[in-house]
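I'll show a typical protein example:
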Amino acid sequence: MCSEIERLYQNFSSSELWAMYLAGEVGRIGVPTFEFFVPVGTVSTACDRARSLRSLCSPGRTISGDTAAWIWAGGTAPSVAEVTLRSWRVSPNPHIRFARGQVADHDVTTLAGCVLTAPLPTLRQLQRRGRSPMLARLQRTLGLLHAERVVDAVDAPHRDEHAVEVRRIAHLE
């Protein structure tokens, strides 16, 4: 299945897309330096947003935090991409925030070729931080509007539960 945004990239070259952007026919959304073109009025999917960050997804890297929440829930993209690393070998980039740490295999999923924390582990990570602009949006996307349901979901993270949420958010079910 091909999204409207994927068709846009299949049918037009990069220079044609830039010309269309300058003419106001398409927009650009995403994390700075990883933005992508979208037809005006089109809502990007989780797969589209993940695909835009695929270049960050090398072995040992996991998209996490506000960036993973943005992939799952949409909305305004964060100003920097958050990436959790297993090592410190990185190249400096002001648009990427690297954090060293381990992400358990069962808390990670792959979406459109991008390795990122699954929805519920992302929610746990944002809750540990306290205030995050993406926390409420991710809770709404997950259908966790009531505090009790958030606590229940966070306290019972299971791989099968992640898989169900990934398929639902990515519109695969």
Notes: Residues 119-129 form the longest helix (11 residues).
